[in-house]
Structure to design on (877 residues):
């Protein structure tokens, strides 16, 4: 066992993370404001899940002539038609806006577009068709927003139950930060925002929290252990102690996500992009947002009366023996 | 010290073996699927060497549960349709009118003349010439109401309510009656959609009710959704009406109790028909596509049940020489003249059919009419090629992610990393085993969930190992460091995973289709990863420690 271990983080770090909080708070606030400005100014590039309409993924025998396809599909009098390359030069994604009228009018679009393209481009294949009526897309928006809201509320409640309200607010601040920045980046890079991005947002909520909770768990332990240290010192110590783990887990998760991003196919690329971004932002926020908010709010130092903490009784006893 | 109770060891070994055993069929997906299909077919009585061989390719004593592949992976069509339940309410009110008229006629000397006023929606509106008779007429109409079966709260009261205002009577359905009617409409619609899809011989369709008035239809491997739509999107309501006149003018106002219906083949040609149908398609017992004996054109041959045959015989006998119209979904298919009474109970519909058209109509007529119109709200179709590509891409991503994480853990934690890696492999096996046993559906986002699980599953081990490192630095004994490491990391592991699990549960509850598949793999993955990280690696570490008895730890 003489093999040299890879250590991404040196042992016994003592970075003054919380000392940076003025800078990072300003950076986070600016990024959040920028995200919201982008959201208002540019909006999101909603996919048909949320906007309704028709999407057709097609594959042509040779590299697709996007201009030709645009001309054919656009000349059918179906309103706004968007054509883009999808992963490979032969693959194209055609999106047609919602048609006036009921569901049958939407369904008719598929036949019209496919017929027109088949007539002009020999050997074109239609690999995927999605049609979402206006009624369903409206419901999906609501369900998505409710899901993200519920997740944040559930977290607020769980952390409050397990820790103290200050921790709860710190965690939620970090979450909201992550969600806002993710939405902001989607607005900026114009990636399609669809149902799977909602799934990614919820997973980011879960991941970011995972990270925050690990730091908080250590904070709680150290608060008991070092009753004389200031809150800033305890927070810095806790972040440094968990730093190695934070980096390790982020790296393994990113390794898996990068594999998925580059090899998992075009359909889930948006989802993976959101997740990668979320892991980076989530790691940042558990240190610089969650812990900083906790410092700002202050925290109860007397844990002697705390009976509700079933998760770490062993830790408490060992801590007391030190 | 590092004691690991024998019963715990047994549990861990059992769980791991079960995980490996029940996930194994997925490694031989094609073989197992064919064997399962062959066995299912043999159970229905089929036989043959090919079936035997396919069934024999996978030993029957091995588990044969497979993860279902979602439509986005195997290709197929997904349709969400809405049933226009309101249509049935209006029909019910129309059907009430003859009865109501009869009741009111008997009271003519007390209430005076009356007539029906056409309205939109499910209202039967009757105007009395003399408002004074309003209450008497209303009381008589209320007698027509029938009790609603009601639910848990006992009888549901009458199904009709009658309001009177200034000599105008409004008969409407009561709330419980509407509820009961909608339930029935939905049940019938589901049944008929199911029958139509079964008629086509499609494998494993999923037909589920969703919400108050929706049906979700998922069919694997159908070539195009158009085909499916053509089959389920049509009401297929067949009726026979006497023809009053034919006209080219759409604005022709039909007389009372008459309707104007367009010709199916010649747009712009209209028929004025008696509103009341002579007989309807629900009396059919059979319908088959065929060819006309004389002209050789495709036709649909049908047969009525005995009551229908008797009724058809009577009305044709009474109306010899008059034209009658065959109406399908509010279009006249054909309007021949009755030459002689048709008493045999069977007949033939000849329109301008193609062979496929005639066969499709026969399927629709056999399966029966939908009680109300269906509109499509959402359609998603994935071609089988794209599905296969997605599976291939997903497999590659899983393998590479796996390899990357294994190598990284190995070089970071040495022997302990190896333990974690073994646990990770067992974790994915258990995850697949659970998905197979509960018959969960694996979707493309579901594969993403597995990859994400691979990345995040090591987190619990990382927490533990980092903690052991820390404890070891404080120069406690090796055993003590390991023990404390596990114990102290536990609260962080629980809190961290419960929160992610909460997100997965919310995702499952709110999401639909593929997103749900993601939620399932994520949720199950969290459970198995906590188990493998805490119990399985601990089992390895404890047994290794008992043998090696190292003085120092090299975590």
């Amino acid at each position: 066992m003489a093999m040299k271990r890879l250590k991404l983080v040196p042992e016994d770090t003592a970075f003054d993370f919380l000392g940076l909080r003025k800078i990072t708070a300003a950076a986070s606030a600016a990024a959040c404001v920028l995200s919201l400005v982008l959201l208002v100014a540019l909006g999101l590039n909603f996919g048909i899940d949320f906007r309704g309409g028709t999407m057709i993924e097609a594959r042509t025998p040779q590299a697709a002539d996007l201009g030709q396809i645009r001309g054919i599909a656009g000349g059918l009098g179906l309103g706004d038609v968007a054509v883009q390359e999808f992963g490979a030069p032969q693959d194209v994604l055609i999106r047609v806006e919602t048609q006036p009228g009921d569901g049958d009018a939407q369904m008719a679009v598929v036949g019209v577009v496919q017929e027109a393209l088949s007539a002009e481009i020999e050997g074109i294949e239609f690999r995927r068709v999605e049609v979402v009526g206006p009624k369903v897309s409206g419901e999906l928006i609501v369900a998505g927003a409710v899901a993200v809201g519920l997740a944040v509320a559930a977290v607020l409640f769980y952390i409050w139950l397990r820790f103290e309200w200050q921790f709860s607010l710190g965690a939620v601040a970090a979450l909201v930060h992550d969600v806002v920045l993710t939405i902001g980046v989607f607005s900026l890079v114009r990636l399609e925002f669809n149902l799977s991005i909602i799934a990614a947002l919820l997973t980011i909520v879960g991941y970011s929290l995972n990270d925050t909770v690990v730091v908080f768990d250590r904070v709680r332990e150290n608060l008991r252990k070092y009753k004389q240290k200031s809150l800033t010192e305890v927070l810095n110590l806790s972040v440094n102690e968990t730093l190695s783990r934070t980096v390790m887990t982020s790296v393994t998760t990113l390794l898996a996500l990068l594999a998925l991003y580059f090899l998992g196919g075009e359909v889930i690329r948006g989802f993976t992009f959101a997740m990668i971004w979320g892991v980076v932002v989530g790691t940042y926020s558990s240190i610089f947002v969650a812990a900083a908010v906790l410092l700002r709010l202050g925290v109860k130092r007397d844990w002697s009366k705390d009976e509700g903490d079933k998760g770490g009784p062993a830790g408490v006893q060992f801590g007391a023996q030190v | 010290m590092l004691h690991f109770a024998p019963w715990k060891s047994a549990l861990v070994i059992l769980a791991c073996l079960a995980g490996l055993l029940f996930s194994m069929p997925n490694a031989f997906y094609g073989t197992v699927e064919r064997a399962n299909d062959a066995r299912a077919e043999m159970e229905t009585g089929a036989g043959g060497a090919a079936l035997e061989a396919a069934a024999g390719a996978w030993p029957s004593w091995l588990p044969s549960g497979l993860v279902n592949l979602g439509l986005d992976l195997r290709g197929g069509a997904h349709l969400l349709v809405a049933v226009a339940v309101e249509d049935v309410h209006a029909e019910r009110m129309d059907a009430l009118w003859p009865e109501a008229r009869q009741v009111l006629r008997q009271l003519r000397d007390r209430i005076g003349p009356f007539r029906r006023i056409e309205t939109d929606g499910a209202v039967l509106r009757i105007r009395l010439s003399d408002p004074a008779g309003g209450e008497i007429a209303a009381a008589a109409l209320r007698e027509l109401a029938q009790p609603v079966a009601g639910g848990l709260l006992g009888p549901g009261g009458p199904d009709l309510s009658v309001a009177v205002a200034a000599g105008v009577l409004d008969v409407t359905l009561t709330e419980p009656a509407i509820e009961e009617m909608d339930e029935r409409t939905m049940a019938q619609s589901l049944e008929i959609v199911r029958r139509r899809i079964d008629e086509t011989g499609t494998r494993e369709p999923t037909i589920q009710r969703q919400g108050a008035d929706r049906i979700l239809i998922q069919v694997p491997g159908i070539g195009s959704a158009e085909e499916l739509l053509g089959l389920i999107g049509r009401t297929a309501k067949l009726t026979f009406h006497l023809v009053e006149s034919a006209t080219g003018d759409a604005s022709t106002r039909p007389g009372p109790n008459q309707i104007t219906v367009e010709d199916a083949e010649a747009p712009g040609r209209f028929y004025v028909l008696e509103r009341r149908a002579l007989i309807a398609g629900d009396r059919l017992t059979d319908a088959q596509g065929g060819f006309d004996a004389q002209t050789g054109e495709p036709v649909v041959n049908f047969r009525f049940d005995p009551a229908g045959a008797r009724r058809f015989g009577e009305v044709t006998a009474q109306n010899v020489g008059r034209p009658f119209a065959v109406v399908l979904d509010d279009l006249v298919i054909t309007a021949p003249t009755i030459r002689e009474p048709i008493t045999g109970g069977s007949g033939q519909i000849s329109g301008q059919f193609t062979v496929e058209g005639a066969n499709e109509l026969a399927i629709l007529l056999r399966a029966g009419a939908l009680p109300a119109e269906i509109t499509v709200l959402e359609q998603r179709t994935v071609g089988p090629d794209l599905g296969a590509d997605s599976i291939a891409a997903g497999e590659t991503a899983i393998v590479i992610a796996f390899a990357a994480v294994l190598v990284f853990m190995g070089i970071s934690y040495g022997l302990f990393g190896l333990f974690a890696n073994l646990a990770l492999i067992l974790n994915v096996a258990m995850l697949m085993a659970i998905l197979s046993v509960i018959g969960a559906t694996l979707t493309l986002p579901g594969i993403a969930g597995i990859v994400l699980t691979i990345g995040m599953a090591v987190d619990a081990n990382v927490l533990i190992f980092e903690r052991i490192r820390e404890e070891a630095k404080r120069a406690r004994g090796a055993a003590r460091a390991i023990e404390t490491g596990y114990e102290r990391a536990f609260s962080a592991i629980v809190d961290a995973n419960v929160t992610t699990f909460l997100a997965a549960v919310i995702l499952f509850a709110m999401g639909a289709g593929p997103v749900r598949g993601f939620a399932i793999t994520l949720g199950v993955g969290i459970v198995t990863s906590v188990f493998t990280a805490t119990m399985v690696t601990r089992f390895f570490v404890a047994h290794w420690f008992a043998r090696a008895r190292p003085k120092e730890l090299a975590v």
